[in-house]
Write a structure and sequence with these properties.
alpha+beta; three-stranded antiparallel sheet; 4 helices; elongated
């Protein structure tokens, strides 16, 4: 008997077309599409790799692409790890005795390029 890969339900499964010459199924209980013996495998990255991704992104200002290349995964997966870790991280403590804040002035250069009037874009 066929069962859903996600919720192991057996009663509410329907056939939902074919893909790569294999029957595709749909579970009405958990709204999951799957193929029996599908090739998709979760590599099961260790928590240390996920923690390293969050550390590299948060403290070293590394890009998703660089972290993905370093860990041998995709940019989207790195983004999802960081997004999931975000609510678990506490807000940084900011000292109350701050009197001045400095911002990057790069936008002045960009604005001046837009208004240059040279006719070239």
């Amino acid at each position: 008997m066929i069962s859903c890969k996600r919720c192991t339900e057996t009663k509410h499964l329907i056939k939902r077309g074919r893909i790569r010459s294999q029957q595709r199924y749909y579970c009405k209980t958990c709204q999951y599409h799957f193929i029996l013996g599908g090739r998709r495998q979760d590599k099961g990255y260790p928590p240390e790799a996920k923690a390293l991704a969050v550390l590299l992104y948060g403290t070293m200002k590394s890009s998703y692409g660089m972290i993905a290349r370093l860990l041998g995964t995709t940019r989207k997966r790195v983004y999802l790890w960081i997004k999931k870790a975000g609510p678990q991280i506490s807000e940084p403590l900011i000292s109350q005795d701050i009197t001045a804040i400095e911002f990057d002035e790069m936008w002045h250069f960009i604005q001046s390029k837009k208004r240059s009037g040279s006719g070239k874009h």
